[in-house]
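Sequence design from tokenized structure. All designs in this work follow the same two-part layout: the structure record, then the generated sequence. An example of the structure record is given first.
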């Protein structure tokens, strides 16, 4: 095969190269005798074995230059006008095809760049919306915590006054009843008026029922004190800093606040709470924020069971009563896990993969914001350097796991880089 023309040094084909660069069409029927060729160019083409040659320059709009070369090396060829026009047409079509291909590539690149930019802008907008929603939710929770703490403080003072004085009222009442009994013994024949009044007020029943009434009032006041204490423990405004906390107290406070949704009513069979608390130490955490996580998870479990029960018969509910199991345990000596499981309908895989996405909710409009689990994941992952995930299968209930380190001192170096990417998903 003869050496291609393009591989020859440009100084050997200077006249040819200049003509090609200028876009001229070169047509040589007989290279050996053509007067246009000088000795150097003729000698090069003859040496390459060319006898006849036809070249057409091809130049695209981008400035790229090429050449279509037709040559005969076995015999001379007289190039006809039709052949020359055909080669010109091929060259023109080739230029058009190359230009269109380049425009197509440019349009694809521009489209890809625009798509990438649009995706980036959408992501920025999504992040801004997420941040705004989280700030609003955080502010709401902060305001709610302040309100709860304020109400608890205002209730606590009069309740303590009542509870403290009930002991004295009980003593005074018992004393007065004993005094009445002594009067009855010392005066066996009271006047008609006194006897009539004793019968009117049913003194015997009063003497029997009044201590019971005071005991009930004391129990009620004590119940209010427990609720107030739970509200204060839940809000934890006095514990804004991270400190060692009894996790079980936070869970119990949350359950007490949700007691009204758990108990049995005329239209609800109630939800049984099973506590399987392990022997775990105090945990370094933001107590108020972690209580918010417990509130979200337990509330969601209650909602799931209520929705599941609305689709079941009373016989089925009685045979398989609703239940929430809360389990805590030590894991790997330096971390603890809190597991909150329900025996509801379970979660399908498509929904499970999006549980922690901001604004994603399966609840009807007005029933949920889709921020509860997203904020819970942020609190666990970013604030406590932990992880949260869900194990669930359709028909098998759902179980949420929260894992956090016992001490944050060993994880401070990585806390700044912790993010929601630490959230784990496991189909179980």
């Amino acid at each position: 095969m003869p050496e291609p023309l393009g591989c020859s040094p440009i100084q050997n084909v200077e006249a040819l190269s200049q003509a090609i660069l200028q876009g001229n069409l070169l047509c040589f029927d007989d290279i050996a005798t053509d007067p246009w060729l000088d000795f150097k160019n003729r000698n090069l083409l003859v040496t390459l074995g060319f006898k006849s040659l036809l070249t057409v320059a091809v130049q695209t709009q981008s400035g790229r230059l090429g050449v279509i070369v037709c040559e005969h090396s076995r015999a001379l060829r007289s190039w006809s006008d039709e052949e020359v026009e055909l080669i010109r047409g091929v060259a023109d079509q080739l230029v058009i095809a190359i230009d269109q291909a380049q425009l197509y590539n440019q349009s694809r690149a521009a489209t890809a760049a625009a798509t990438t930019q649009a995706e980036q802008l959408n992501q920025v907008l999504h992040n801004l919306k997420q941040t705004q929603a989280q700030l609003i939710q955080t502010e709401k929770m902060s305001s709610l915590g302040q309100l709860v703490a304020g109400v608890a403080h205002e209730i606590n003072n009069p309740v303590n006054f009542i509870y403290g004085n009930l002991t004295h009222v009980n003593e005074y009442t018992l004393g007065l009843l004993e005094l009445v009994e002594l009067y009855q013994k010392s005066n066996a024949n009271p006047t008609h008026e006194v006897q009539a009044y004793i019968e009117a007020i049913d003194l015997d029943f009063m003497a029997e029922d009044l201590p019971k009434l005071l005991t009930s009032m004391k129990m009620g006041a004590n119940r209010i004190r427990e609720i107030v204490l739970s509200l204060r423990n839940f809000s934890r405004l006095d514990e804004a800093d991270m400190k060692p906390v009894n996790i079980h107290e936070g869970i119990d406070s949350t359950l007490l606040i949700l007691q009204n949704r758990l108990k049995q009513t005329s239209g609800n069979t109630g939800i049984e709470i099973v506590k399987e608390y392990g022997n775990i130490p105090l945990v370094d955490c933001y107590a108020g924020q972690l209580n918010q996580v417990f509130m979200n998870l337990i509330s969601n479990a209650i909602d799931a069971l209520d929705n599941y029960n609305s689709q079941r018969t009373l016989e089925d509910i009685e045979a398989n009563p609703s239940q929430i199991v809360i389990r805590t345990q030590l894991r790997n000596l330096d971390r603890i896990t809190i597991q909150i499981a329900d025996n509801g309908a379970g979660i399908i895989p498509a929904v499970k993969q999006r549980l922690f996405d901001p604004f994603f909710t399966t609840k009807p409009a007005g029933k949920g914001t889709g921020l509860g689990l997203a904020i819970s994941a942020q609190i666990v992952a970013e604030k406590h350097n932990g992880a949260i995930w869900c194990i669930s299968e359709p028909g098998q209930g759902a179980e949420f796991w929260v894992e956090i380190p016992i001490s944050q001192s060993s994880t401070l170096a990585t806390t700044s880089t912790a993010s929601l990417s630490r959230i784990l998903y496991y189909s179980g």
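The chain has a mean pLDDT of 79. We note this feature because it recurs in several other targets discussed in the main text.
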